[in-house]
Amino acid sequence: MEEIVKLDSVAAYNNMRGVKTQHPLVTLLDLSKAEPMPAKTFNFGLYAVYLKELNCGELKYGRSHYDYQEGTLVFIAPGQVMGVQPGVKTFEPKGWALLFHPDLIKGTPLGKLIQDYSFFSYDVNEALHVSDKERQIILDLFGKIQHELDQSIDKHSRKLISSNIELLLDYCTRFYDRQFITRDHSNNSIIERFEGVLNGYYSSEKPYENGLPSVAWCAAELNLSANYFGDVIKKETGKTAQEYIQAKVIDIAKERIFDLEKSVAQVAYELGFKYPQHFTRLFKQRVGCTPNEYRVLN
Fold it and tell me: pLDDT digit string (tens) for 66-88?
């Protein structure tokens, strides 16, 4: 079995990259001055923000072209696994890496909000591509963090560093909103494919066998991470992915309720509900009446 190396401290990461540890809970690396990552699989116990400066020319996403070639941001959260493939010539683009231990933000405003930054759970293919202006904002914030790391640690260090990291993540949220907008064509394609996945699911025996389709299952069918998928659906429709699925289920339910040869319980089981009363409760929440009342009224 392949060995998975745990990186659960800033010092362990810095040692691997051949750089000095200035603060036990946070580090900022200039990748051009660090040792390359060895060909192993790593389980991160740290938060990481990588700004990779690539010289890859024009980026293509779907059928659309984008000129965000100055940098790409990749985010990693504690518990995630990242592997460097063996037998491949090491390629380390220049850029920066910010890593911080969860203990750094415990008890801080950022610690209470960190779960809201859903991009920490995006896949690498859902990375953030930043423009030159956006990249400069990120570098400015990295500069402020580095300034604090260069000072002697005092009672203000943790607050100032975590505040700058929070500001950095808030800007990244804004940049992702921009990226969702500029990829409107691709997002529409995701909505269409999502509809196709749901239609296919309810044209089969899967609901009866497997229950209601989950957000995670739908995302996997579209080769997207659950968080990225959920964020795209929310931006495009104003509904959460779960709400979108429920709305689809109710639309299908309205059609099937008119089959008088089937009881409401049968319809519920066909839709994937384990208990008919759960179907009745959701239907009333969404429609304003019970399935039986809807059948009579219509």
Answer: 344 458 898 999 998 877 665 54
